[in-house]
């Protein structure tokens, strides 16, 4: 996980997570090695999508059904 975070710029790393001394570029020699690890490219794409969706989350209360709204207004 830490290696992927380093690849993506090292941001959003949890404070309690130990730092990895070895750089990601050293563990995977070049981006051409991603073809040997097809799940890695999918994993990186999934992480990017997850982080973008996380920015748009709304934790405010939302009434989803009109019946519940009517009961709440009574």
Outline the secondary-structure elements.
Layout: H1 2-7, H2 24-27, H3 38-55, H4 66-73
Protein name: GATA transcription factor 24-like
Keywords: Nucleus, Transcription, Transcription regulation
Domain CCT: 43-74
Strand-and-helix sequence, N→C? HHHH
The low-confidence runs, each spanning 5 or more residues with pLDDT under 50, are none
Count of strand segments: 0
Helical residue percent? 40-55%
Shape: rod-shaped
Provide the gyration radius in Å.
20 Å
Our estimate of the beta-strand percent is under 5%
Distance between termini? 50 Å
Major sheet attributes: none
In total, the number of domains comes to 1
Q: What is the residue-mean pLDDT, rounded to a whole number?
A: 74
What is the number of helices? 4
Structural class label: mainly alpha
